Structure formats: structure tokens, C-alpha cells
């Protein structure tokens, strides 16, 4: 790969580093010597760039210097009432400066990331584990500067740079590290890069401070709710008031969320969806169980405030104040204890009759326990005719009229459900004899004791022959007054 | 005391209470407050009136203060509970061969409420005798 496309590839892929091996022997601008320090670590393909300037362009750019100068000037003047009272805020030069500051702060962030990668790659030879222990780029840079080429970490004073737990972890890891001291030039370059990162960080802080001081003028309503610091940060990350106002509230809630969840650190305690909004006064003031709820509420209302500010609807921050009061009232309401439970008297017995349900489902359920035609026939007996019984001779269960000759039915089937009867009604003309529902071994003839062979009359079951179904209400019944011609 | 456990201090009040409830069962506990089994009964009764307030009301009568009913209702035990509905005495078959009254402290609220509900249902249907859901034949005193 030639050096001309090197810078482009970095600028294009700031998020994920390119895996290509890159040779960088000549450098146009600084003319420094190239040192190949990565021959030993062939297993991990690393970027082998040597000059920071080829990738970290922002700090040396004209734009950066211009804006920083303007910011310094404006800060020197101090906060003052803007003489510009036009309706279109975008025309105000100070507003434009602030917009530029916002974009600049995003760019500074990106630049810091690039420099951090550079430092990390160089320092890997010395202390590889450090990059996974200390995630924050600025903290990392400070640490690198402090430790330098020192192998024994007990000689290094890390107080104030990191929380004590991290210091302990770092010291312990350093004692067992597999790194070797860097060469003199490598070290010099690394420390230079650290300085640059820290300088950028300072610049960013300055810019944010400036924006914050002007917050009351730019976005009074938003600052009324979340405070000017958080408002400045939100605007910085969003890239301007217009961008912020176009976002839905759920996005505003996430602005500023740290995404670094490296393996080894538990994610159980890491609260999800926490951005700048979480660190506002209002949310931090609520009890921990209600914080997520408060976060959402504040994000929603602050989005409204940002929209008001964008359209310059209310310059006196009254709407912001109202929204803030609303938020506080709601949070108080959530914390109220629930109303005491009243002992309820028992209802009067039998006062509300049981609700009887109907419908198809219930009818189908009732069918399972309904009295079937077979059982009805078995319950009745013909006069003067002894019934058959299961054990014969009058012992066992009696079968009543079941299976008796002349009952009009050959075989009493298990019984049609009423719904099936409705269907049968439609097709009753078509049913001659057995309509295919019986098995192939059954015949239409039946052997009865009295008449020998009996053939059933298909019309007969419609008439009075079967005493089981009332023909008046029968589903398959016909008009009763009209006599059917046989 | 507790909610709605009123004392009736003379016979007129007692009569009035029995006759004037149209919608609810009137429960009268005859006894004296100083007796131990009465006190037990009252302990168990504390929560009950709030729950049954829609269909029953409880009154307390001290038989020393109002001796008029002692002969009529045969109040010879320290505490007695009787049920009335619309000026009619409702008998309860508890399995103890005395259907007129309950002579002991019923052990749990739920049992007592069940008896009262049964009395109410029966009385509404104009029955003079209802069958208690729980049989007390072996539990009576012993």
C-alpha cells in the first residue's frame, strides 16, 4: 500500500481499524525516521504507521485554530446580552460560532480516538494488558505519560489519575506483564502523542465551557430543565440544536452513552440506556428504583424544550420552568405510598345470579354429557314387551326399546349432535339408507326375531315412528299438516 | 370496641332492633361481657361485622341488664347467639339437638360467617329452619 492512501484509509475507517499490513517508510511532512517496531508481533496485524500527523490532522488544521481563537476571544469578552434580536437565530454570528463548536467537539472526539489507537499500538510492546484495563482514552494517555518506560510500577505514583481499585489492578498486572521497555524514539513519539491527546482534551473542555456559558442564550428552556452543562454536552454530541430537536426523545435519552463493554467486565450492574440525561440533577435526585423512569421523563420533556428553543418560541425560559415543575410533580407522585386498603364487606349471598354463558363452545361441551338417543330408547319400555337385558333373563341393565323390532331404526347410532343435525337438514334429500358413515361390513338389512329380515324405510324416521324426537321441533322435520305421499 | 358491635340496654331497644331490620339478619348475642366464654366469642367476632354488614347486623345484650328475655329464650348459658329476620326467629340445625341458638364460642370467623350466610339465604326464601354447613354434634362444649 502506498502512503498516499494510508491517510485516506484511516480517515474513512475510524471505527474499525483496517487489517492491512502497511509499510510507511517515507514521510513527507516531518521527515522523521521510520522505525519498524512490529516485526515481533506478527500474529496480530497492526497498523504500522509512524507519524501521527498523517492520521491526526485536526489539531494542525486551520479550522481548529480559527475556532479556538474565536472561542478565546468570546470568552474574554464575557457573557453579554446579544444585540442581535432577529427572528432567525442562525444568522447570529455567535450562534454560528456555537454551531461550529458543536461540530468541532464531535471532531475532537474522533481525533482523540485515532490518537488513542496510535498510542495503544505503540505502547502494546511495553504493557499490553493496559489497554483492556483502562478504557478511557484520556486516562490511558495520562497513565502512559506517567509510567513512561518504567518497568517497576511501585516506583510510579498513580494517585489522582485513576480510582484506587483500578490502580491496584494495574499495579498487579504490571508486575506480571509480558511487555518489554520501548526504544527511545518509540517512547518519545508515544509521549508526544499523549501530549497531543491531552491538549485536544483541554481544547474540548474549553469549547464546552464556552458553549455552556452561552447556553442560557442559545437554549434557555433546555438549560432550565437539565442544566447548562448537560445541555451543552447534549448539543455537542448531537451536533447542534437543530439536530437535537429533530431527534426523538428515546434517542436523546441515549446521547452520551458509553458503549464499552469489554469481555471480563460484568454487564449485570451496568445500567442500560444511560446517557447524559441520567447525570442531570433531577434524575440523580430521585431514589434509585425510579431513576430509569425519571430518565425517560426528563428526556421526553427536554426534547420538547429543545424544540421550543430551536424555533425560539420562548426566550424567557418560562416553558422550561413549567416543564421542570411538571417533572418534579410527577416524580413526587410516584413516590407517594399507595392508598390504604379498605376492608371490603362480603356481598349479599345470592344477590347476583350466576352468569350463565351460552354460545357454541358451551353447547359443544354440554353435548358430551347430554342424554343421547340410545340412552333415551333404553330408558323407555314398550307396554307388554319384555325388554332385553345385558345379562339375559332380566338380570343386568335393561335395554328398553333399544334394538326392538319396529322401532323404525335399524341401528341406533351414537347420535348426531344438534349442529350436525342442522347440516343434515340441508342434505336430507340426499340421504338414502346409510349415507356412507357406516363401515363397509354393515348392510341395510337387519335380522329381527319377528319379521325375519327388516329393511328400514328412510322416510320413516322423519315421521312419528321414532318416539324419541319430537317432530314438531325436529331439525329435520317438515310441515306437520301436509301429508306426505308415499 | 369494634365497628358496629352495639350494646342494647333495654328490652324496648331489643324489640326495636329485631323488628325494624327489613333487609338484614339480626344477630343478638345474649350474655355478659365479663364472662370468659363471652369474651372469647367477642374476640372472634371483632372482624366479622365489617364483612357481613350488607346482610347482617350484630347486637350485644347483657342478660343481667336486660333480664326480660331470659325465660322466653331460655338463656341459661353464659353466652347465646340467636338469629332473627323480619321479626321471625330463624332456627339453625347444628346437630346439637337444640336448633334455637348457639351456646358456645364459634371457633373461626369463616365458620360463623358461613352460618350467617346460610341463615340469610334460608330466611330470604322464607324457611324457618336452615341447616348449618358444619355439624357441631361432637364439638359442643367438649
UniProtKB/TrEMBL annotation, chain A:
It is found in: Nucleus. Keywords: mRNA processing, mRNA splicing, Nucleus, Ribonucleoprotein, RNA-binding, Spliceosome. Residues 336-350 have a biased composition (Pro residues). GO terms for cellular component: precatalytic spliceosome; U4 snRNP; U4/U6 x U5 tri-snRNP complex. Residues 354-363 have a biased composition (Basic residues). GO terms for molecular function: RNA binding. Residues 218-336 form the Nop domain. Coiled coil: none annotated. Residues 331-363 are annotated as: Disordered. Pfam families: Nop, Prp31_C. InterPro entries: Nop_C, Nop_dom, Nop_dom_sf, NOSIC, Prp31, Prp31_C. Gene3D superfamilies: 1.10.287.4070, Nop domain. One of its GO terms (biological process) is spliceosomal tri-snRNP complex assembly. It comes from the Eukaryota. Its main location: nucleus. Belongs to the PRP31 family. This is Nop domain-containing protein. It comes from Ceratodon purpureus. The lineage of its organism: Eukaryota, Viridiplantae, Streptophyta, Embryophyta, Bryophyta.
Automatic annotation (TrEMBL), chain B:
GO terms for cellular component: spliceosomal complex; U4/U6 x U5 tri-snRNP complex; U5 snRNP. This is Thioredoxin-like protein 4A. It holds the Pfam family DIM1. It comes from Ceratodon purpureus (Fire moss). Keywords: mRNA processing, mRNA splicing, Nucleus. Belongs to the DIM1 family. CDD domains: DIM1. Its main location: nucleus. It is found in: Nucleus. One of its GO terms (biological process) is mRNA splicing, via spliceosome. SMART domains: DIM1 (SM01410).
Amino acid at each position: 500500500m502506498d502512503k498516499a492512501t494510508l491517510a485516506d484509509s484511516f480517515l474513512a475507517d475510524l471505527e474499525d481499524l483496517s487489517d492491512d499490513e502497511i509499510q510507511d517508510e517515507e514521510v513527507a511532512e516531518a521527515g522523521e525516521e521510520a522505525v519498524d517496531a512490529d516485526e515481533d508481533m506478527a500474529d496480530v496485524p497492526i497498523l504500522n504507521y509512524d507519524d501521527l500527523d498523517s492520521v491526526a490532522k485536526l489539531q494542525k488544521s486551520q479550522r481548529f485554530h480559527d475556532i479556538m481563537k474565536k472561542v478565546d476571544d468570546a470568552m474574554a469578552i464575557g457573557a453579554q446580552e446579544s444585540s442581535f434580536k432577529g427572528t432567525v437565530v442562525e444568522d447570529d454570528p455567535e450562534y454560528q460560532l456555537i454551531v461550529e463548536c458543536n461540530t468541532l467537539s464531535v471532531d475532537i472526539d474522533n481525533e482523540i480516538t485515532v490518537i488513542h489507537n496510535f498510542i495503544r499500538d505503540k505502547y502494546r510492546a511495553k504493557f499490553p494488558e493496559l489497554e483492556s484495563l483502562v478504557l478511557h482514552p484520556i486516562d490511558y494517555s495520562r497513565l502512559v505519560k506517567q509510567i513512561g518506560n518504567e518497568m517497576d510500577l511501585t516506583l510510579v505514583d498513580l494517585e489522582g489519575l485513576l480510582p484506587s481499585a483500578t490502580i491496584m489492578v494495574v499495579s498487579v498486572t504490571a508486575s506480571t506483564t509480558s511487555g518489554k521497555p520501548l526504544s527511545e524514539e518509540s517512547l518519545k513519539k508515544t509521549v508526544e502523542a499523549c501530549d497531543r491527546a491531552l491538549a485536544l482534551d483541554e481544547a474540548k473542555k474549553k469549547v464546552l465551557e464556552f458553549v455552556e456559558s452561552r447556553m442560557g442564550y442559545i437554549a434557555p428552556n433546555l438549560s432550565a430543565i437539565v442544566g447548562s452543562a448537560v445541555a451543552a454536552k447534549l448539543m455537542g454530541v448531537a451536533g447542534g440544536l437543530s439536530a437535537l430537536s429533530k431527534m426523538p426523545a428515546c434517542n436523546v435519552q441515549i446521547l452520551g452513552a458509553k458503549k464499552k463493554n469489554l469481555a471480563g467486565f460484568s454487564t449485570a450492574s451496568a445500567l442500560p440506556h444511560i446517557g447524559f440525561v441520567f447525570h442531570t440533577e433531577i434524575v440523580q435526585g430521585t431514589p434509585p428504583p425510579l431513576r430509569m423512569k425519571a430518565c425517560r421523563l426528563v428526556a421526553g420533556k427536554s426534547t420538547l424544550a429543545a424544540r421550543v428553543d430551536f424555533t425560539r418560541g420562548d426566550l424567557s425560559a418560562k416553558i422550561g420552568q413549567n416543564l421542570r415543575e411538571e417533572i418534579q410533580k410527577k416524580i413526587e407522585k410516584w413516590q407517594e405510598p399507595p392508598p390504604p386498603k379498605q376492608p371490603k364487606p362480603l356481598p349479599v349471598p345470592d344477590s347476583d345470579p350466576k352468569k350463565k354463558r351460552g354460545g357454541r363452545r358451551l353447547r359443544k361441551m354440554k353435548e358430551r354429557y347430554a342424554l343421547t338417543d340410545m340412552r333415551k330408547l333404553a330408558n323407555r319400555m314398550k307396554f307388554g314387551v319384555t325388554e332385553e337385558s345385558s345379562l339375559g333373563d332380566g338380570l343386568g341393565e335393561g335395554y328398553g326399546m333399544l334394538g326392538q323390532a319396529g322401532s323404525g331404526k335399524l341401528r341406533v347410532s351414537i347420535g348426531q349432535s344438534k349442529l350436525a343435525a342442522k347440516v343434515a337438514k340441508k342434505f336430507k334429500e340426499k340421504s338414502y339408507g346409510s349415507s356412507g358413515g357406516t363401515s363397509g361390513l354393515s348392510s341395510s338389512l337387519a335380522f329381527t326375531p319377528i319379521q325375519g329380515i327388516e329393511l328400514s324405510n328412510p322416510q320413516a324416521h322423519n315421521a312419528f315412528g321414532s318416539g324419541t324426537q319430537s317432530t314438531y321441533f325436529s331439525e329435520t322435520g317438515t310441515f306437520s299438516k301436509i301429508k306426505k305421499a308415499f | 370496641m369494634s365497628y358496629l358491635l352495639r350494646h342494647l340496654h333495654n328490652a324496648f331497644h331489643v324489640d326495636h332492633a329485631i323488628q325494624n331490620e327489613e333487609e338484614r339478619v339480626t344477630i343478638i348475642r345474649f350474655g355478659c361481657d365479663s364472662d370468659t366464654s363471652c369474651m372469647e366469642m367477642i374476640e372472634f367476632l371483632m372482624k366479622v361485622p365489617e364483612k357481613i354488614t350488607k346482610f347482617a347486623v350484630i347486637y350485644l345484650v347483657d342478660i343481667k341488664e336486660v333480664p326480660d328475655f331470659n325465660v322466653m329464650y331460655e338463656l341459661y348459658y353464659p353466652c347465646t347467639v340467636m338469629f332473627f329476620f323480619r321479626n321471625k326467629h330463624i332456627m339453625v340445625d347444628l346437630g346439637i339437638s337444640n336448633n334455637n341458638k348457639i351456646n358456645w364460642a364459634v371457633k373461626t370467623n369463616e365458620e360463623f360467617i358461613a352460618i350467617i350466610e346460610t341463615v340469610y339465604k334460608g330466611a330470604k326464601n322464607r324457611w324457618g329452619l336452615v341447616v348449618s354447613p358444619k355439624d357441631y354434634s361432637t364439638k359442643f362444649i367438649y
